[in-house]
Design brief:
With about 220 residues, this protein is an alpha/beta fold. It has 8 helices and 5 strands. Helix 4 runs antiparallel to helix 5 and helix 4 crosses helix 7. It is globular, with a radius of gyration of 17 Å. About 40% of the residues are buried. It binds thymidine-5'-diphosphate.
């Protein structure tokens, strides 16, 4: 794959969506980006047409309960379609892909949040991705209470997972902290408790050093 997959992760209200938007505007102007053929912004669940249907089922199941393993498999189905239809073809063409959530969300939410077996999730992630890993994952780390309060203030706290208990969201946060400790080469922590502009400045700093490294790497091969 010639392109690069950059993933944004974190608990509800960590600010991923607005940071991706700002990042996209900045990358569009930055020279580092010129090393890539195009820029693609996408998300999980819901990065494909089929995924949009799955997203609705997952986030708004109405009165119908979803069993934990069913939830895991639906996220995996969304990912498998996304990898085949969008991620792999764009990466093969040399795009830089900014993706809102990927495999670490499943570990954090279905593993730590729901309590499903992490080895099982790793196997299912491997099937869904066909082995495609992110080149870099930015973990937007913010205190759960602060993040949920932000969401509440924006009037946006309403889908099935967002309505989970505070204990659930704390376990998800713990999941991210443990993933960060286990994969320091792949996951970079961003202090997302700061103002929007300061968070964006950190992200730009990280991507600048990473993308320039990648440019150097491109010149060597
Ligand atoms: P997101 O699009 O980040 O929601 P919002 O934009 O409303 O903040 O994510 C959708 C939800 O799906 C979020 O609660 C996290 C959850 N999720 C999982 O539980 N497992 C997964 O594997 C993925 C990709 C998302």
């Amino acid at each position: 794959m010639n392109g690069k997959l950059i993933v944004f992760e974190g608990v509800e209200g960590c600010g991923k969506t607005s940071q991706i938007q700002l990042c996209c505007e900045w990358l569009g102007k930055d020279v580092a980006y010129k090393a890539f053929t195009s820029m693609v912004v996408t998300r999980e669940p819901g990065g494909t047409d089929l995924g949009l249907h799955l997203r609705r089922l997952l986030l708004d199941a109405g009165e119908h309960p979803i069993a934990d393993r069913t939830e895991l498999l639906l996220f995996a189905a969304d990912r498998s379609q996304h990898v085949e239809q969008k991620l792999k073809p764009n990466l093969a063409k040399g795009a830089i892909v900014l993706c809102d959530r990927y495999t670490d969300s499943t570990i954090a939410y279905q593993g730590y949040g729901r309590g499903l077996d992490i080895n099982l999730i790793n196997q299912i992630n491997a099937i869904a991705t066909g082995g495609l890993e992110s080149d870099l994952t930015l973990w937007l780390d913010v205190n759960v209470e602060v993040a949920l309060a932000r969401k509440m203030k924006s009037g946006n706290l309403g889908d099935r997972l967002e309505k989970e208990t505070i204990a659930f969201h704390r376990r998800v946060q713990q999941g991210y902290a443990e993933l960060y400790a286990s994969y320091p080469h792949r996951i970079v922590r961003v202090d997302a408790s700061l103002e929007k502009e300061a968070v964006q400045a950190q992200i730009q700093g990280i991507l600048t050093s990473q993308l320039h490294l990648l440019e150097g790497w491109k010149k060597r091969v």
